Automatic annotation (TrEMBL), chain A:
Family in the record: Belongs to the acyl-CoA dehydrogenase family.
UniProt keyword Ribosomal protein present: no
Protein known as: Acyl-CoA dehydrogenase domain-containing protein
A Pfam family recorded for this sequence: Acyl-CoA_dh_N
Zinc-finger in keyword set: no
Species: Alloalcanivorax balearicus MACL04
Cofactor(s) listed in the protein's UniProt record: FAD
Domain spans labelled Acyl-CoA oxidase/dehydrogenase middle: 119-210
Acyl-CoA dehydrogenase/oxidase C-terminal domain residues: 233-372
CDD domains referenced in this protein's UniProt entry, alphabetically: ACAD (cd00567)
Every Acyl-CoA dehydrogenase/oxidase N-terminal domain range: 6-115
Gene3D superfamilies: Acyl-CoA dehydrogenase/oxidase, N-terminal domain, Butyryl-CoA Dehydrogenase, subunit A, domain 2, Butyryl-CoA Dehydrogenase, subunit A, domain 3
Listed PANTHER family: ACYL-COA DEHYDROGENASE, ACYL-COA DEHYDROGENASE FADE28
TrEMBL record, chain B:
Pfam families: Acyl-CoA_dh_1, Acyl-CoA_dh_M, Acyl-CoA_dh_N
Similarity section: Belongs to the acyl-CoA dehydrogenase family.
UniProt domain Acyl-CoA dehydrogenase/oxidase C-terminal: residue ranges: 231-397
Name recorded for this polypeptide: Acyl-CoA dehydrogenase domain-containing protein
Record keywords, A-Z: FAD, Flavoprotein, Oxidoreductase
Domain of life: Bacteria
Organism whose genome encodes this protein: Alloalcanivorax balearicus MACL04
Residues of the Acyl-CoA oxidase/dehydrogenase middle domain: 125-217
Keyword Nucleus: no
Named cofactor requirement(s): FAD
UniProt-listed PANTHER family: ACYL-COA DEHYDROGENASE, ACYL-COA DEHYDROGENASE FADE29
Annotated ranges, domain Acyl-CoA dehydrogenase/oxidase N-terminal: 6-117
Oxidoreductase listed as a keyword: yes
Gene3D superfamilies named among the record's database cross-references: Acyl-CoA dehydrogenase/oxidase, N-terminal domain (1.10.540.10), Butyryl-CoA Dehydrogenase, subunit A, domain 2 (2.40.110.10), Butyryl-CoA Dehydrogenase, subunit A, domain 3 (1.20.140.10)
Amino acid sequence: MDLNYSEEQNMLRESVARFVRDRYDFGQRQQRLSAGEGAAFWPRFAELGWLAIPFSEDHGGIGGGTVEVGIVMEGLGRALALEPYLAHMVATQLLARVAEESVKARYLPAALGGESRLALAFSETGGRYHPAFCATTASPKGDGYVIQGSKNVVLGGQHADLYLVVARTAGQTREEQGLTFFLLERDHPALRVREYQTNDGTGAADLTFDQLEVSGDARIGDLHGAFAELEWALDLGVAYQGWEAVGAMSALSDATLEYLNTRKQFGKPLGANQALTHRMVDLFIAVEESRSSVLRAALAMDAESPSQRRRDLSLSKIAVDRCARFVGQTAVQLHGAMGVTNELAVGHYFKRLTAITATFGDSEWHARRIHRLDGASSREAGVEHGH
Amino acid sequence: MDINLSPEQQRFAEQVREFISRNLPRDIAEKVRRDQHLDRDDHMRWQRILGKQGWHAFTWPEQYGGPGWSVIQRYLFEVISAEMDCPIIQPFGPRMAGPVIYTFGTEQQKERFLPGIRDSSVWWCQGYSEPQAGSDLASLSTWAEDKGDHYLVNGQKIWTSYAHHADWMFCLVRTSKGERPQQGISFVLIDMRTPGVDVQPILMLEGTHSFNTVFLENVKVPKENLIGEQDKGWTYAKFLLEHERVDNAAIGVTKAALRRLKRIASEEVADDGGPLIRDPLFHRKLVEVEAQLQSLEVTALRVLSQVASGEAPGPVASLLKIRGTEIAQRISELASEAVGAFCLPYQPDYLHDAGAEQPVGPAHAATAANNYLWRRCMSIYGGTNEIQREIIAKRVLEL
C-alpha cells in the first residue's frame, strides 16, 4: 500500500506542469478558441507521447495506466485545454479493447501518432444519460450494414476523423442487449456532421446517419454485445475527467487565494475577513477530497472487478461533481463581479467544471446506477440466505 | 502507486484478525456493535488484554515498549479493530500522555509512568479546557504557585473526558505570566487522588456522562511531576493537539458506522413496505455520504503514504479532522432519520447496559437516536472545526 507517486510519475507530472506553464497561456487560449483552433497543440501532445500512454507496447504504446493519463488530464484541466484529449483517449482505448488485431493495426498507429482523432458516439436525444438508450439502428444488408439514426453531443466530435458509433443491431431502444460498435470515417458521404461550440469552449458535434451503408468489417467487437464495453469506456471517461476537474479546481483554488491576498476593500485585503477565509478553506478541502477521489477512481479502473469498478467510479463521480460545483461557484463568488466576466479565467474554469458535472452521467444517474447495483447484490445475497 | 496490501501487510492483518477473534470478549463486542456506550470496566478489560499482547500502546516505538509498527500497520490495526467491533482504545494514556512523557520526560518519569500506560492499569485524563479557555486554550488561568519542592494548584478544568474514571491527569497550568498567553504555561501530571481534586459530572443532552468539571483547590503537585521545562508547556500541548487531529479522522470507526447505518436501513421499512435501504430517496443520501467517506479514506491513505516514506504529513492532514467529523455526524444523522418516529423515546439507560430490559421500538433505534445527539460533540472537541479552519487558513493557506 503506497499512494505516493513513483519517480516516473513525478517526472511526467513535472513535464506536464512545464508544458502548461510555458505553453498554455490563457489569453492565447482565448484567441485560439475564437479562431476555431482548438486542436492546435495536438502534434505537440503526440511528440510528448501523451497519446500513446495507456496502450500496449505491441501497438506502439507506452504501457501506462489510468493514473498516468490522469496526470496529463490534471495538467490539461489546469490549462483549460481545448484539445479533445479526453474524448480521443476514451474512444481510442475502447477501440484497442474491442477491435480485432487487423483493425488495430490499421488505425492505432495514426491515432497514437497524432495524425488521426477518434470520438465515441453514443448519446441520443431522449436517452438522457442512459448509455443503453439507442434508437440508431444498424440493419444487415448483403455483407454489410445500413445505419439509420443520429447521435447528439458527441464529445470531441468536431475534431474527429473517425467515429466509434454505437448502433442497435437487436432489441428495443433502452435494452442493454443488442448494441454493436461500428467504426465510421468522417468523409462517408451518408454521414452528416453538425459541429458546434459548447459553453466550456471544448466543442462537440451531432451526427446524422441517413441510410449509411458500411461493409461488414466496419463492425467492431461482438455483435449485440457492446454495452458492457461501452459502460467500461464511460467509466474511463469519468476517471479521466475527474482528474481534469482536479486540475481545474486546483487552478481555481490558487487564483482565488491570490485574489483574497491582493484585492483590498475597507482598507484591508479580502483575506482578512473570516467569512471569506473559511469559504477559502472549504474550497481547499474540496480540491484535496477530489484529488483523493480521482486517485481511487483511477486505481479502481485498473484493478477491480467490473461490479466494484462501476460502484467505485460512480461514487467518485458523485464526490467530484459535488466538489466541482462547490469550488466553481465559490471561486466565482469570492472574485465578486470579476468572477462573472468573460475576461478572467475564473469564469471559464467554472464553465468547464459545470460541463464536467453533466458529462458521462450526472450525479443522479450515478446514484441510480449504485441503487441498481446494490439491488442486484442484495438479491444475490438473498438467494444465498435462502439456501 | 498501489492501493493493495503487500503480502507482508496481509499477513499482519491476518494476525490482528486472529488475535481479536480469539480474545475480544463477546459481551463487549456486542455493546460496540449496538453502538452502546461502554463503562470503565469494558474499556479496561479489553485494553488490558491488548496490553498483555503489547498492543495497547500500539503507536509506540519498540524503544519504549511499543510494538514498533509502521504507520500502515497502525492504520490496519485500527481499521480491523473497528471492523471487528473492538472498543476504541482510549487515547488519553497511550496516544497523549505516553508520547509526551517519552518525548519530553525524564528517565525517572518514563520508568514511573510508561508501564502503567502500556498495560492499561492506569486511566489518564486530559486537563486542558477551562470555563474561560475553550477554543482559546492559551488563555487558561489555573494557577500553579511555586512552593519550592511542589506546586500549589488552584483552578478549574472543564469538559474533562472520563475524569470520573481517571487515576491521573496531565494538566496545563500557568506558572508565570508572559507577554503572550502561550508563555508561562507548564505541563504537569496530577494524581487524581490528591486532596483538593474534586470531579463533578456534566450530563450531556442525551443523558450520558462522559464529561466532567474538575475543581482543583490547593492541590499539591510534587515538582517531579513537571514535564520538561517550567513555562514551556505550550510546546508539549501543541505537540499533542497535532497528534489528536490526525487521530480524529477515525476512518475505521466511521466505516463501521456506515455499515451499521446500512444494517439499520436494511431492517427498517420504507413507506412502500420495502426495506428503507431500497428507498431511492434514502439511498441517494446514503450514497452521497459514502462517496465522501471513500474520498476521506483515500485522503488518510495519502497522508499515511507520505509519512511512511519519511515526509511530514503535509497540509492535507489538517482536513482530516474537519471532514472526518462532518461525515461521521452525517452518518449518525441518517441513522436517526432511518428509525423514524422511534428516534423520539428517551432511553438513556439502554445506551449503557446491554442487559437492560427491552427498549421501546427496535433495539437499534434506542442507540441511533441518542448517538445522533451525542455525536454533535465531534465537531466541537479536539479544537472546534472552526478553529481547524483557522489553522488551515493561517498555516496552510497563509491567509
